[in-house]
Fold this sequence. Notes:
With 236 residues, the protein is of the alpha+beta class. It contains 5 helices and 12 strands. It has helices at residues 2-29, 31-35, 104-107, 117-126, 211-219; strands at residues 38-47, 50-60, 63-68, 75-79, 84-89, 94-97, 136-145, 148-156, 162-168, 173-178, 184-192, 207-208. A 12-stranded mixed sheet has the order 7-8-9-10-11-1-2-3-4-5-6-12. It is globular. The N and C termini lie far apart (111 Å).
Amino acid sequence: MLKMIRDAISVHLRKAAWRLLALAALSASSPAAAQAQQFSADIVTRHDDVSAPAGRLSVLDGRVRIETAELPDGFFLVDTMKPSAWFVRPGAGLYMDAKQSSQLTRLFVPLDPDAPCRQWQAMARLAGLSGEGEWRCERIGEETIDGHGTVAFRALSGTGEGFVGWIDRKHQFPLRIKTGDGTLVTLEQIKDEPQPASSFELPPTLRKFSPEALIEQIKKSDVWVSRPDDAAPSRP
Length: 236
């Protein structure tokens, strides 16, 4: 009788161990685990065989920080889980919706290497480009770039405007984007290294700047001058 109890316990423990191993394997291959990536890279643009540094990109668990040469007084923070995209200006104590201020915040985001259009379209809508209609992504091949295995897609918005993206399977992130005018935006010097969480958070001391709210305030002030067609019609 004692032997039967021991055998039953042994079988139960073995089954429990196999279930734990299976769960661990499933977790490692799930999208959430794949997004748990930390890396940084340089952003470089190429057009007509002329290369130029464009900025710096860092990624931490689905969040992206982008610093560009065009806007040196701030940086972009993108969170695809919310989703949200901000332009942060620490020196001015402000942050604001990124909207369409940089195409990088809409294209260089974590993606599903087998179905990238869903996230690209979501970021376009967040930027206020909801009128572009449904996006379509056509897989056009695979390519190894600087030792990274990539899947290439041709993406088309509802307006017919498009680009080609090479998505790194390991990082689940675009490695290259080729826009309609032939400009190539690439990530180079990719480093898999820990990223400080504070770099991806809005400082609590900042206040949000709203252009719409500013316009409404100006309208209520003495400096607002109505256009002729805004004025009430005069009576004879």
